[in-house]
């Protein structure tokens, strides 16, 4: 036992600051009172709290000698990044809503006079170490300091590709508010975010920042960033409503029936930002395929192909064994099958979801290894014009505020 304790103490001493901190005290007591917490862990809406552990099989495929398969997991050329400047973002959106995808799941949303930054990851690697771990495949489109004021930073969960310590530390020196799932605030406080700027929410809880409401909604995923996964921090998707518009960010999630419930309560949405990358047959319950992502979008919109769906959680980091371009191609195919309107911005390209047109070019085809048989000949046309039913979302009244966790 003494040797075991010494090893454990040694590992704790070597633990990088990026591992964050475990919830304790009143924060832990609040976690224990959560209806989503049982037997020492947070529970998913439909079970399966984490992957099934088939990592040996994953490694066999990831490192297999099929050179072409390995090459296809990364872009063959330089990923085109839109040259966005602060001046581009200075003028308010014409209709009150503008989205700028910064790569992966990071999105700057300007909604009804407020600026919301989802899952900001400006680091070079999504890892606790600066010498190892998945490295970004394209530069950050806009320097963090050039973004301008941000009213609220929203975090979906504590995995490294969604919660980046250097980015949080930089934002801690600003006046922004941080909206996070229950327990995640422990990491942020450990990195210097004042407790009075934290809004820590359980599923179905809502807080208000200025004139917008933010609701933590269920997702099917898991948590953890240390040497062990304690399941002591919650994961969430987010519904955000202003006076005139509503948007949804999925975070990371497997497909589940709860999307329809979220849409019925908080939708329809002018735009949904849906995870469609880093999926695998080895973890089907925690990440969606493009087809599942489109099903989720339809569920959120009451079964109608209304609003705009923007694919996220792809193109920036190599986190799975599927080809790099596959999530984009799959999203195009899924959208065409149901007549949904999708936006395909380059990293850093601002667009207004309620405008007559949205970015539509499958830009990845210019830098990905062309598949055998070539790219599909059909071009995206109908999806880019507002010819599908588009129910304009309306704002909500004053939501219930939730005290800082």
UniProtKB/TrEMBL annotation:
Q: Which domain of life is it from?
A: Bacteria
The record ties this protein, via Gene3D superfamilies, to: Ribonuclease Z/Hydroxyacylglutathione hydrolase-like
One Gene Ontology cellular component? cytoplasm
Q: Which Pfam families match?
A: Lactamase_B_2
Compositionally biased region (Basic and acidic residues): 385-395
Where does the record place the Metallo-beta-lactamase domain?
A: 114-314
- Region entry Disordered, spans: 385-405
Name of the protein described by the UniProt record: MBL fold metallo-hydrolase
């Amino acid at each position: 036992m003494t040797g075991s304790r010494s090893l454990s103490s040694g590992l704790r001493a070597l633990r990088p600051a990026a591992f964050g901190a475990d919830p304790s005290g009143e924060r832990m007591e609040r976690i224990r009172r959560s209806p989503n917490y049982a037997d020492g862990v947070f529970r998913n809406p439909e079970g399966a709290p984490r992957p099934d552990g088939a990592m040996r099989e994953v490694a066999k495929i990831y490192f297999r000698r099929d050179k072409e398969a390995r090459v296809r997991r990364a872009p063959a050329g330089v990923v085109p990044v839109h040259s966005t400047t602060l001046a581009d973002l200075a003028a308010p959106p014409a209709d009150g809503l503008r989205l700028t995808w910064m790569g992966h799941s990071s999105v700057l949303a300007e909604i009804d006079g407020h600026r919301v930054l989802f899952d900001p990851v400006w680091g070079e690697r999504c890892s606790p170490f600066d010498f190892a771990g998945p490295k970004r495949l394209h530069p950050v489109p806009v320097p963090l300091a050039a973004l301008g004021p941000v009213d609220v930073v929203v975090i979906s969960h504590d995995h490294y590709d969604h919660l980046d310590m250097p980015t949080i530390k930089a934002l801690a020196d600003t006046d922004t508010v941080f909206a996070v799932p229950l327990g995640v605030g422990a990491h942020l406080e450990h990195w210097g975010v004042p407790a009075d700027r934290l809004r820590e929410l359980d599923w179905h809880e809502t807080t208000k920042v200025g004139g917008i409401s933010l609701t933590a909604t269920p997702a099917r995923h898991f948590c953890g960033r240390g040497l062990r996964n304690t399941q002591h921090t919650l994961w969430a998707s987010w519904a955000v409503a202003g006076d005139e518009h509503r948007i949804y960010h999925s975070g990371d999630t497997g497909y589940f029936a709860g999307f329809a419930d979220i849409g019925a309560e908080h939708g329809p949405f002018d735009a949904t930002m849906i995870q469609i990358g880093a999926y695998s047959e080895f973890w089907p319950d925690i990440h969606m395929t493009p087809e599942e992502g489109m099903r989720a979008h339809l569920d959120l919109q009451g079964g109608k192909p209304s609003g705009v769906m923007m694919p996220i959680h792809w193109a920036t980091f190599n986190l799975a064994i599927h080809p790099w371009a596959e999530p984009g191609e799959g999203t195009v195919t899924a959208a065409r099958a149901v007549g949904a309107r999708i936006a395909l911005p380059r990293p850093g390209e601002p667009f207004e979801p309620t405008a007559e047109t949205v970015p539509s070019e499958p830009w990845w085809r210019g830098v990905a290894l062309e598949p055998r048989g070539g790219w599909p000949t059909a071009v995206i046309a109908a999806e880019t014009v507002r010819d599908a039913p588009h129910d304009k979302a309306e704002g909500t009244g004053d939501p219930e505020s939730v005290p800082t966790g």
